[in-house]
Amino acid sequence: MRDFTTLPPDLPAPQDDGAAAHLEGMALPHVRLRSTRGRLVDVASAAPRFVLFAYPRTGVPGEPAPPGWDEIPGARGCTPQSCAYRDLHAEFRALGHEVFGLSTNSPAHQAEFVSRMAIPYEMLSDEGFALTDAMRLPTFEYRGARLLKRLALVVEQGRVRKAFYPVFPPDRNAATVLAWLKGA
Q1: Do 14 and 150 contact (CB within 8 A), yes or no?
Q2: How confident is the model at residue 2, as a pLDDT?
Q3: For a Cys staple, 151 with which of 33, 109, 161, 165, CB 3.0–4.6 Å?
């Protein structure tokens, strides 16, 4: 069984398929998603300035990665990406940006992950694809499940200012977004 907190060196990199090209400048819709703090968050007004990063799914402790998961470009790395945002969370806040994670995992699954990995920010569950469909976020199919492709959005006053897509390697995404914010 592999360690989900680190990335193997041979992961295939995703290619930019243009599926996020429409996001920059887009106003976020008023969609309410359940957070790991048990509240409903209206994504359009979640905070004046925030980073929303999307990821396919987090693993379950004690269970191996699904067959073929590491061969899907961009699929592996949800835990390293989430932990990188955790480790840089104070720096994002110092720049006036909240952080939210987004997946189609259930709120209970996300809450277990947040507790286990000591995640200080809220994860949002788009289990019903309300935000995904409203914004036409990039997705992929795996074994009959529809999952989000990995991306990060810088949101200011309810509008996407910058979209990072595709994201690779996932463990460096938080540092890349933070560097962009510092230079913006």
Answers
A1: yes
A2: 52
A3: 165
Between CA 167 and CA 150 the distance in angstroms is 6
| Cis ω for the linkage preceding 73 (within 30 of 0) | no
41 forms beta bridges with 33
pLDDT along the chain (184 residues), means of 10: 66 94 98 97 97 92 83 89 97 98 96 96 98 98 95 98 97 98 94
The HSE-up count of residue 43 (CA atoms within 13 Å, CB side) is 29
Give the amino acid at 71: E
Edge-to-edge strands, sheet with 98-103: 40-42, 32-35, 122-125, 98-103, 49-54, 151-156, 159-164
Contact 103, 85 (CB under 8 A): no
In what helix (H) or strand (E) does residue 115 lie, and over which residues does it extend? helix 107-117
Percent helix, strand and coil across the chain, each to the nearest 5: 30, 25, 45
Q: Domains in the chain, ordered, with CATH?
A: 32-183 (3.40.30.10)
Tokens of 151: 């991306």
